[in-house]
Specification:
Cation/H_exchanger_TM, 74% helix, antiporter activity, Na+/H+ antiporter like fold, membrane, disordered C terminus, mainly alpha, transmembrane
Length: 421
Amino acid sequence: MQHDTILIELGAVILALGLLGALSLRFSISPIPLYLVAGLAFGVGGVLPLTTSTEFISAGAKIGVILLLFTLGLEYTAPELVGTLRSSAPAGLVDLVLNATPGVAAALILDWGVAAAVALGGITYVTSSGITAKVLGDLGWLGNRETPVVLSLLVFEDLMMALYLPILTALLAGFGVLGGAVTLAIAAATVSFVLLVALRFGTVVERFVASDSDEVLLLKVLGLTLLVAGVAELLQVSAAVGAFLVGIALSGPLAHTARQLLMPLRDLFAAVFFVFFGLQTDPRKLPPVLGVAALLALCGILSKLATGWIAARRAGIAVPGRVRAGAALLPRGEFNIVIAGLAVAAGANVKLGPLAAAYVLVLAVLGPLAARAAEPLARLYIRRRGGGTGGRGRRGAEGAPGGAGGDGGAAPGAAGPAAAG
């Protein structure tokens, strides 16, 4: 009887996710907030709490995190990561300081402890690569001159996450300063080793997993990703980081084929992950943290707009491009929930989960909407200042197309996570 109930619950959850996904497509918004709401509805304190399928959903959620980070890693090659780290370091550090500070400060002011402060700083810092990639594609911004600036910031954030997650894991586990230093050293050594393998022996890895059969390739890639993620977790590095590094090690046509094969699985298990996070959050605990979430969301909007403006200005991009860059960086989503999930699972402050859920809900919805309003607002700003044409379009420019002050010319090398949108 219990097995019958499991099938009914799983079928109902997956069908509900499909309907919510269709609704998000209808209104051109990210499905992540809707999946979180579904988790709230199916969890403790919700309207239809699950009783027998939570263990399966928990396992699926872990796979969802791993596949999210693996497919993100597929978007980059090791040389691209090294080059991007060098070129985007100044803007990336500005991004880190401006956006992590509000979260850290809020947790310390609320007296939640150092571990919760580090977790909340990560939650307010990192942009949702998935939602941003979709926004860039949907709005036709992939060819704009500011797009490589946005992508370089996303790559920098991903690299920071590779170092951040082991530190957070050590703090949550109570390892102390020495234990945290050891964990960070292991993480740095692991990242360096994988990057070395990707740079020097990438073809060997590709030959190992390559196959003319899609079925065999899928099994090899998925098995290798889960295996490395599990080993990374044993080393206290984080399964998510391990999966991300496996993605980096694969490149070229093989990476493209692997992405195409794994995308349906990724989408399914990622949706399960967002539901599982919602399951762990009691909706009755949301109202007490809504004020803090709204304040952090406002800080997040202002700090990301400032980040995009500064980074695009350094690249010689005009005002509309600066505004678009900032607006593209606003959404929060998958990685923010991953961080909150790690903290909640480790027993951090009980209010951290509801706060993260409310924060992500607000910015995952407002981010894409703000991006749509960015260009009209930029043109209005230019008209009021009495300069520029405020032209739009992928090849329109404020000034000469492709010039130093231009904005809309085709962006050389505009690749990376936007391609996954």
